[in-house]
Amino acid sequence: MSTTASTTASTATSTAPVVSLQGVRRAFGDTEVLRGVDLDIRAGEFVALLGHSGSGKSTMLRILAGLDAGATGGIRTGSEPAVVFQDPRLLPWRSVLDNVVLGLRTKDAREQGRAMLAEVGLAGREDAWPRELSGGQRQRVALARALVREPDLLLLDEPFSALDALTRISAQTLVQDLWQRHLPAVLMVTHDVEEALLLADRVLVVADGKLVHDERLDIERPRARNHPGIVERRV
Ligand code: ADP
Ligand code: MG
Question: 86 CA distance to ligand 1 centroid (A)?
Answer without folding.
Answer: 15
